[in-house]
Write a structure and sequence with these properties.
The protein has about 130 residues and is an alpha+beta fold. The protein has a single domain, classed as Arc Repressor Mutant, subunit A. The protein is built from four helices and six strands, in the order αβααβββββα. The strands form two sheets. It has a three-stranded antiparallel sheet with strand order 1-3-2. It has a three-stranded mixed sheet with strand order 5-4-6, with no helix packed on it. The structure holds zinc ion (3 copies). InterPro entries: FUR, WH-like_DNA-bd_sf, WH_DNA-bd_sf.
């Protein structure tokens, strides 16, 4: 994963991602790692990982930042143009592996699109 030095802190943070199938909020990450590192370190590592194409961030319905692992991104470009799904019952957010089409607008350049779908997740439905 590029130029990121694999420090102990980076390893711990990636571990939290590896143990989770869904996306993680910044609040959850800070809480989860508070025994090993402070808030500032968590933010700094997340920033670096996002620049390197390891994770991507997006906002939930309350405007809180969440992170999820990228699948095919590089340090040059994020190619995650997928919607996110937030469950209104349990609050879980997942990346949906479906493509969404971004409209082309003649006099604008579009760099990213955030689509947040809200509803009820499979485990809350059953
Ligand atoms: Zn990405
Ligand atoms: Zn749910
Ligand atoms: Zn995602």
């Amino acid at each position: 994963m590029g130029i990121i030095r694999k420090t102990k802190s980076v390893g711990l943070l990636l571990n939290v991602f590896n143990q989770s199938k869904s996306a993680l909020s910044v609040v959850h990450l800070i809480e989860n790692l508070k025994a090993s590192m402070n808030k500032t370190t968590v933010y700094r590592i997340l920033d670096r990982l996002e620049q390197e194409g390891v994770v991507h961030s997006f906002l939930d319905k309350d405007g809180l930042t969440w992170y999820a692992k990228c699948t095919e991104c590089t340090s040059h470009e994020h190619s995650d143009v997928h919607p996110h799904f937030q469950c209104n019952d349990c609050g879980t957010i997942e990346c949906l592996s479906i493509d969404i089409s971004i409209p082309t607008i003649s006099d604008r350049q579009i760099d990213s699109a955030d689509v947040l779908l809200q509803g009820t997740c499979p485990s809350c439905l059953s």
